[in-house]
Amino acid sequence: MTHIGKYVVVRELGQGGMGVVYEARDPALDRTVAVKLVKGPADPTRFLREARAAARIIHPNCVPIFDLGEQDGSPFLVMELVAGMSAADYVERNGPLPPGVATAIVAAACRGIDAVHAAGLVHRDIKPSNLLISTGGTVKVADFGLARAVDGNAPTLTGDRAIGTPHYMSPEQCYAEPADARSDVYSLGATYYVLLTNRYPFKGEHELQVMFAHCNDPVPDPRAVVPGVPEECARIVRRAMAKKPAERYQSAAELLADLEAILAREPTPPLALNGPNAPHPARPPVDRDAATAVWLPGPPSRSGTPTDAVTPVRPLRTRRWLLGLPLVAAAGVGGYFAVRALGPTTAGVGPDGGDGPKPDPHRTPVLVPVRKVGGRVGVFGVAISDDGRWLAVGLAEAHAPERLGGVKLYDRTAGDAPEVWWKWRDDSCNAVAFSPDGKLLAGGFSGSARLRVWSTVEQQEVPLANAQFSGEASGNVVSVAFSPDGKYLAAGSDGWGSRPGRVRVWRVRDGKHVRDLTQPKDRPPQQVRGVSFAPDGRTLATAVKTAVSSQPFIDVWDAETGSHVKTLLVTQATLGPCVAFARHEPLLAYSAQEAVDLTRPATFPPGPRINTGNTEPAGVALSPDGRTLALSVADLIHLFDTETQHPFPAALAGQTGQIYALAFSADGKTLVSGSEVRTVHEWAVPTPPPPGE
After folding, report:
1. What is the pLDDT of residues 137-195, one digit of tens each?
2. Catalytic residue at 360?
3. Domain range holding 654?
């Protein structure tokens, strides 16, 4: 690309979820600018709002907007290109800042934010990476993509998305409640804490844990991290970050007054990135992958004593950071910045890029509530897309196949798992599954007795041949599964009346109905309880639910040829057996009333057995590597090491109601569960304990 509108593209500076930022030249005025170009399915309404909001603010501590245009149907925004670095990079370069320097940065930000508020706007995404420091020391507030007009009745949602950055969000933003100027004050307080300490106010293994802490945990004292921080600075942090808006500073101007009082008593040299007043790096440069690495003070030692070691930590979201040239792209890309550091320095992601110290791999699992899904229906299906972004929830009436429920889709990358859409709400959904590439979402329904598929790319329902289970195949669709290679889609029905349940297989690329897998005629009619593909993409296990006085089974099929491979006997199962293959490991788990059996293809010999204490699991899931087995029993989830068959030290407790739905993320680090009382939870899953522990 050589031109965007009239602007001559010099080079790409960075990319984010919303688009691309370029360095460009304005030929008319002969000046260098930053051009932000929306790409893909980005929200043009948000983009236009950012442009109009920023254009209303004229202040030396705010990044100005120069122009707005359109390129091949995509809008673009032209902004100042600031020579310097972000406050996030500044604190990362220098470590905890001297109190006077941190105070000066936040005071300048307050001046800019006060202008934002005077324009009738709330920024709603204040954080160190959105505070840009020019080479001359001017602090500029950037990225008004989340700014909106002040409206006491307007929640902090964009299309049902809770918005902001979790480490700096006010409690009301975390709850998706209306935000006003005092929400920005809270974020300024959190930013002040980070600049003083180079640590986040609250830590967590997951964004939602951080948000929960913002709402419930006491405001931390920066002196616990850096003892030399003056008490007055700590007092400002406490007041700015008060849980209740009424107890905070009521405006940025009020907060500014206290900050300026500190600066008046203790004059600070002008902030500068070059020259004699520039602070020297607090530690020597280190080699690391700038695209993913985050460096912060290390976690407590096992004895509980803090350590000053610098420890790499895992970022909440991967960010693209460009190093080596003295430029900062002032145009935010959905909250992302292309940051270019000044001179030889410790380059990398600052506090905005990660979620705190590296977690203990043997930590106790922590409950992270997503939300109550609403209505009077239960959660019977959950699935996470392979890229980790989307969470699908299947809603069904708990005790009858009523035409009520549907599928809700949540965006896990945008705060508190905000709801994106709710489809087919007049139909009762029993199961959901994503295709491996994330382009398709399938759901099995009771009310319509059909399999429904939604294209996440085309944003429309995809027609399938024989998607409705009718006639001799009549039944509620209670299970769905894609093959790991994405070639096949299978769905199982429970059968109606005297009709046996059956499994139907489709070819994904063209939606063709390939075949039905029917139970042998010498058996009493039984329901299909679940379906699961093996890693080879063709071996398909089906759980056959017991009829009265009948033997439950696990039937194994070759989905490609339709041939029956093997029948595995289940001792007894009142709820009906559950079945699950590991995605990357040839391991199959299936449940009975008193145990879960493990076996392997191709011969499926009797394998290890995990005793469940004569309690039948309602849900079973295997981690992708096959190492961890999850079982739901009533309102608890038990984890087992499949290699040793030993349980993990603690069950996952805290969700109420019978848990029917379980699903691991593609990386195996997260387990999602859904209960009959309309709640969905995410759990941070530890690695199995070492042998002997």
Report:
1. 889 998 765 455 544 333 333 333 344 588 999 998 887 777 899 999 999 999 999 99
2. no
3. 367-684
Grouping H, G, I as helix, E, B as strand and the rest as coil, residue 223 is helix
Encoded amino acid at 406, one letter: G
Residue 317 confidence (pLDDT):
28
Residue 187: give its domain's CATH number: 1.10.510.10
DSSP state of 189: H
**Is the confidence at residue 258, as pLDDT, over 60?**
yes
402 is a domain residue: yes
492 and 598 co-located in one domain: yes
Measured CA to CA, the distance from residue 654 to residue 652 in angstroms comes to 7
The predicted pLDDT at position 548 comes to 54
pLDDT in tens, 545-586: 755 556 688 999 999 999 999 988 887 655 668 999 999 999
Q: Is position 343 within any domain?
A: no
Q: Per this entry, what is the length of the chain?
A: 693
DSSP string, 290-332: TTT-EEEEPPPPTTS-----EEEE--SS------SSS-EE-S-
Q: Strand order in 628-633's β-sheet?
A: 619-622, 628-633, 636-641
Instruction: Label each residue of 6-72 as H, E or C.
Output: CEEEEEEEEECCCEEEEEEEECCCCEEEEEEEECCCCCHHHHHHHHHHHHCCCCCCECCEEEEEEEC
**What is residue 156's DSSP assignment?**
S
CB 116 within 8 A of CB 255: no
Q: Which of 204, 510, 603 is nearest to 369 (CA)?
A: 204
Which one, of 581, 566, 490, lies nearest residue 534 by Cα? 581
Mean pLDDT on 391-403: 69
Closest CA to 101 of 139, 59, 63, 60: 139
Q: What is the mean pLDDT of residues 19-38?
A: 87
Tokens of 685: 């899953």
Which of the residues 89, 114, 125, 184 is marked catalytic? 125
Element (H, E) at 376: none
- CA–chain centroid gap for 105, Å, is 30
Confidence class for position 347, pLDDT limits 50, 70, 90? very low
Look over the chain and give the mean of its residue pLDDT values, rounded to a whole number: 77
Distance CA 411, CA 253 (A): 35
* Overall domain count for the chain: 3
Q: Within a domain: residue 598? A: yes
